[in-house]
Each structure stands twice: as C-alpha cells, then as structure tokens.
Amino acid sequence: MRWWLAGVALVIAQGSLADAAERARGAWLAHDPQRLIGQGGSIVLQIPGADPSMPLDRAQASELLRRHWRTAVERALTLRGVHELESGKGYAELERRYVVTGTSDERQETIFLGFRHAGGSWRLVELRSTGP
C-alpha cells in the first residue's frame, strides 16, 4: 500500500505545471488529500482552521483538508490560470463554487496552489484559500 501512495504522489508532481495544476484540481474535486498534497516534506496551508504562519507536515495537512471538505458539496472548480515564476516556482489559481452541507446558498472562493519544480517534477508546497 505504501508504494502505491508514493507512486500516486509522484504522478501528481510530474509533467508540466499546467498538468500538475489539473491533477491537483481533480484531487480536490475527489476530496482526496493524499493525492492533492503528496508525501514527505511540509506544506503551507491557509484554510479555515489552519494556522498559515507555520508549514505543516503532510499528515496534519491531510487531516485539516478532510475536515474542511467534510462540510462542503462541490459545485464547480475551475482552473483560472497557471503562472510559472522564476527559479522553479509557480502557482495555479482555482475558482471554487460550493455549498455548505444543509444549506442551498452557493459560496465562492479562490484557491491558490503554490508549486516548486525540482528533479523534473512539480510539487505542491502551498495552498491558500481566500474563502469565507
């Protein structure tokens, strides 16, 4: 089982930045934190319930994402842009539309995914939400 998870994390990180962003979008829609953030290292996570001032280990970040998603029903998640920056850094911008479980009011937020490029692959290192 462990080799399978490592393989999934590797697949997410490989390819172009646009490919990595699209795979991250799919992982978010599936509410699959392991597929979204991968294995090893730390990640900066800024969502309700997370302290954005400190990087989290990926296990802790996975649990916070599970809690965050538990109360939401996804309506749409659109990849709005992918931007490659200097020295192997890049980010993707997602627009999320969702409803809180038990309500009918649709909400919207922007999610920024920060990536670093190393060894021919892109790895998610930061996730920030501008939502309520």
Walk me through what this model shows.
The chain is of the alpha+beta class and 132 residues long. It has a single domain, classed as Nuclear Transport Factor 2, Chain: A. The chain is built from 4 helices and 6 strands; from the N terminus they run H-H-H-E-E-H-E-E-E-E. It has a 6-stranded mixed sheet with strand order 2-1-6-5-4-3, covered by helices on one side. The longest helix is centred in the N-terminal third of the chain and has 13 residues. The N terminus is likely disordered.
What is the structure about, briefly put?
This protein is an alpha+beta fold. 33% of the residues lie in helices and 41% in strands. A 6-stranded mixed beta sheet has the order 2-1-6-5-4-3, covered by helices on one side.
Number of helices: 4
Low-confidence stretches: 1-13
Beta percentage is 35-45%
The sequence of SSEs as H and E is HHHEEHEEEE
Number of strands: 6
List keywords for this structure.
132 residues; single chain; Nuclear Transport Factor 2, Chain: A; alpha+beta
List the helices and strands and how they pair.
Blueprint: H1 2-13, H2 17-29, H3 33-37, E1 42-46, E2 56-57, H4 58-70, E3 72-84, E4 89-100, E5 106-118, E6 121-129
Parallel strand pairs: 1-6
Antiparallel strand pairs: 1-2, 3-4, 4-5, 5-6
